[in-house]
Amino acid sequence: MQLQKFESLHEMKFLNALNKIEGLGQKKIKILMNFFDSAEDVWKADFSILLKSGIGEKFAQRIIEQRGTINPDEEWIKLEKENVTMLSLKDENYPSLLGQIPDCPYALYTKGNLDCLKMPLVAIVGSRKLTDYGRRAAFGFAKDLAKNGVCVVSGLAFGIDACSHRGALDARGKTIAVLGNSLDAASIAPRTNFELSEEIVENDGLLISEFSIETSAGIWTFPARNRIMAGMSLGTLVIEAARESGSLITANLALDYNREVFAVPGSIFSPQSEGANMLIKSGAKLVSSCKDVLEELKLDQIAQNQEEKFTGELSQEEKNVLDALSHEEMHVDIIIKLTKLETSAVSSTLSLLEIKGLIKNIGGQNYIKL
After folding, report:
1. CA-CA-CA-CA torsion for 62, 47, 54, 38, nearest 10 degrees?
2. Which tops the pLDDT comparison, 278 or 360?
């Protein structure tokens, strides 16, 4: 058993070193690994044998030139110092759905709780320039999905991504951030979301990347990141995407991979909603609640069990007030009228529900359901 563990570690060191070859990329690595018996064999092969693998003269020469400047042991130590682990396509922890897509990465880097990969995964993507409507929708959908046993996948970007991660965390649920850069602390981007990345890991979430350590984010890294999000998830939910949004790339990739695509409708007057509304016109499933997503993915039975357990912990008055509220603001006078409860009872119940994190007082005696 110890020997097998050693050989596996030995193999991963060389795979990581291969991933450090500039411009080689995951497609070429997959070609090499299909031709050779091991990553170590690739690393030690001469030019003529590398050429036989089918990667082409340019990349065969690149491996020969660059491997003399890369120390597999030293590069592995860098990973260990950052608490980053590595998965290959053959690893039992490799995301099963991701492994089914034709352009899946051969190697993945992870930081955090690998058990997240065993949960139902739903990606939430959208605009970086979000409106208050988008913020509330992303936070609310993510929170409700997480409450119902779904792990929320997003990209740690500004806007919808960050709100989605925070919604899942607020529900004490699980979330995965797929990054367009490596997982070492210095490379996490955007820097304003560095603390969010740490919070995800500290709360048993997971960070994922296909990029070797010390790789900065760039224009070319984000489409690569998007295919991982789409490929590993059962479905992708788009909230507030402009007509030329990168979120539409993720949605189209999800369709290519035979995954479900959902979209939250937005205002016809909002540029941030043009892309999401266009997706709906093109056949994406319009959703207005977490329940719509769960039912489409056939996860509604899990949701029902979770909901019964959750509502069972509330008093009848709390249930009545919560049922009366929605994600649109509602004045306390309307709540009193709908529930037919005494003013004092509604007031105290609203306070209790806010303490439990189920509703929010947005000012002027107006409340919304979270």
Report:
1. -90
2. 278
Class level of CATH domain 112-304: alpha beta
- Residue 309, token pair as written in the block: 């357990």
Given CATH 3.60.21.10, say whether it is the number of domain 314-369: no
> What digits encode the pLDDT tens for the residues 14-47?
999 999 999 898 999 999 999 999 999 999 999 9
Q: Do the domains 314-369 and 112-304 match in fold?
A: no
